[in-house]
Amino acid sequence: MITRRDLLTVSAAGVAFSVAGLVQRAVAQPLARTAHILTGFTPGLQDALARLIAGQMNGYAETIVVETRPGAAGRVAVEAVKTADADGSAMLFAPLGFMMLFPHVYKTLRYAPRDFTPVSTVASTPTLLTVGPKVPGDVRNLADFVSWCRANPRHATYGTAGAGTTLYFLGAMLGRTAGFEFLHVPYQGNGSIQDLLKGEIASTVMPIGSSLGLVRSEDLRALATTGPRRSPFLPGVPTVAEAGYPSLEDLTWYGFFVPAKTPANIVEKLNVAIQTALRSDEVKSGMAGLAVEPDAIAMSDFARLIVSEFDRWKAIVQATGFVPTD
């Protein structure tokens, strides 16, 4: 089975090769219709990323509009793209969890990964374990925090953007692996960060950008990131593997999808437009400002990644005993 580390090693070379071959074959004329990029949440990181890339997708369509379609944890947008015309005018921009995790956490899902063609990933970000004033100041690393949680089970809490998310499961797996009861507190959006600052909860498991400024100002303490290597945004913070928990290694990828029956030449054209946008200085600097890293995976490897991650998250969901919801 392909691993995430394998993909991180080969993706850059694979994309460079594929783009070189695709550019000459891609259709020169832009789509006559307005193209719509749908995202599943209210304005935030995902919406900002979509708009950043759309602004540099020169030549794909005469007009590109980014639309937020919040609702049902993002599923409203996914379902809208599934039933849209398969002519390249509708695309989904989403974290991979919509395809690899949601089938395991919802009893009824009105779409499946096979309903979409994965076009390209564009960026990735690790998750960050952060603690606040509720945790004593001498807790400076993950081993210290685990010891504190074991000694203070009533206060061992972590906040995320909701139950059934990858963030929730990473916290659950930390508690399970380290042998302590880690109580989950769900929030909407970045609401957990404010309660962390107030000392209402002990920790958060959130994307690195959610608390980056507060960590840099030392209002919060970052204990570990989940990436395969240290984040360039917090190079002094060790990875979970360095801290002794390699099974918690994880990245959140963001990527583009189109309806499954979209013609290959249009998918190819879209892929070229995305790769071209990712090479622009505007997108590179914009991603740095959002605390995400450009991370493009070739189309064939993208499809394989979804299959591999689908199986991995199925095992994680089952191991935690999570009961699927409606």
Could you explain the architecture of this structure?
Helix 7 (166-178) crosses helix 12. The chain is 40% helix and 19% strand. Strand 1, helix 2 and strand 2 form a beta-alpha-beta unit. With 326 residues, it is an alpha/beta fold. Residues 8-27 have low confidence and may be disordered. The protein has twelve helices and ten strands. Strands 1, 2, 3, 4, 5, 6, 7, 8, 9 and 10 form a ten-stranded mixed sheet that branches. The chain has helices at residues 4-25, 45-54, 75-82, 97-100, 102-105, 142-151, 166-178, 191-198, 212-216, 264-278, 281-289, 299-320; strands at 35-39, 64-68, 90-95, 116-131, 157-160, 183-186, 203-207, 221-225, 251-259, 293-294. The relative contact order is 0.21.
Share of β-strand residues = 15-25%
Stretches where pLDDT falls below 50 for ≥5 residues? 8-27
Q: What is the ordering of alpha helices and beta strands?
A: HEHEHEHHEHEHEHEHEEHHEH
The CA-CA distance between the termini, in Å, is 31 Å
- The amount of helix comes to 25-40%
* Estimated radius of gyration: 20 Å
| Shape, per Cα inertia axes | globular
